[in-house]
Amino acid sequence: MYISQHSDFILSPLIKILKDGIAASRAIGDGIDSYPMGEYLMQSLFLKMTGAQEQKMKCICWELATHDYDYRYDFLNKKKYGECSTYSSKNGIFNDLIEVIQKVQPSFEPSTLIDIAFLSKIQDHIEQLYSTSNLCIWQNREYVYFISKFRTVLNYRQLNYPIGPVKSYSLFQSALSKRYEEVVYRHRNRCAHNTLSYQVNKPDFSILASADFSYHSYFFRFALIVLIDEIFMALFRKYVSLQN
User: Fold this and answer.
1) What distances in angstroms separate CA 141 from CA 131, 134, 181, 187, one per listed residue?
2) Within-domain flag for 50
3) Which residues have a Cβ under 8 Å from the Cβ of 127 and sit 6 or more positions away?
4) Where would you tag: which of 3, 9, 65, 233 has the fewest CB atoms within 10 A of its CB?
5) What is the Cα–Cα distance from 237 to 11, expressed in whole angstroms?
């Protein structure tokens, strides 16, 4: 029987943090007097979700290192994932998890777990959650833009995992990986290190004026975090099932 100190945490969906925050926000209503709370609440949820995701990444690495001694050596001596906050670190752990699974089941393909139905279920869940929340009232313009674009941004072509022997996989294709770095990672640094206060670390006017800046909303940020979380949970469930 596979024994884990971290499985319950790793398999706890991060979308629950978002659900809890949305549920709590209903107590303050959606009147104009509640609007100043919107940014504060969404930033707090964003930090909780990014922080929890980074801890999950570290826990996954420790789980793999506990049971695979070759991986333990590489993890301790060669891999430099740091805080596990960047796309490259998450992509590295994504490949680590697949590689360990394929040691036990060489025929495993990530596309058997992460397919169009998998993505559609996540998209539907996120859309339903937002539509009944105060978030879409507090930041209605951003919400309307998100609804018009998110199925294009989070489309299955961005999760195009090749079938057959490959040297490595990409968690996201280039467009979505770049979107993660710009929309999630940079904002994570601004909030977590409070650089908005002491560095005036804000996008310049050229970025603010660009059409691309419309993607810099909490709706896209939460969706990307949830998508990454669901992918890693699916792979970790597979890993645990093979250990048993």
Assistant:
1) 13, 13, 23, 19
2) yes
3) 147, 150
4) 3
5) 8
CA dist 209 to 148, 184, 213, 224, Å?
19, 19, 7, 23
Residues 6+ apart with CB under 8 A from 141: none
Q: What is the pLDDT of residue 160?
A: 85
Summarised one tens digit per residue, pLDDT across range 121-156 is 999 999 999 999 999 999 999 999 999 999 999 999
Q: Number of helices and strands (H, E) in the chain?
A: 13, 0
Comparing C-alpha atoms, which of 78, 67, 85, 73 is closest to residue 239? 67
In this structure, is residue 212 part of a structural domain? yes
Give the rounded distance of the alpha carbon of 53 from its chain centre: 7
Task: Measure the CA–CA gap between 89 and 54, rounded to whole angstroms.
Answer: 10
Task: Compare 198 and 48 and report the one with higher pLDDT.
Answer: 48
Query: According to the 3-state scheme, what is the secondary structure of 210-237?
Result: CHHHHHCCHHHHHHHHHHHHHHHHHHHH
99 falls within a domain: yes
Rounded to 10 deg, the angle between the 140-153 and 218-243 helix axes is: 40
pLDDT, one tens digit per residue, over 187-215 is: 999 888 765 555 555 666 566 656 676 88
Mean pLDDT for the stretch of residues 51-79: 94
DSSP-based helix, strand, coil % in the chain, nearest 5: 75, 0, 25
Q: How far apart are CA 213 and CA 21, in angstroms?
A: 25
DSSP 8-state secondary structure symbol assigned to residue 6: S
- Tokens of residue 54, six digits: 């980074």
- Say how many domains are in the chain: 1
Per the structure, the complete domain to which residue 196 belongs is given by: 7-243
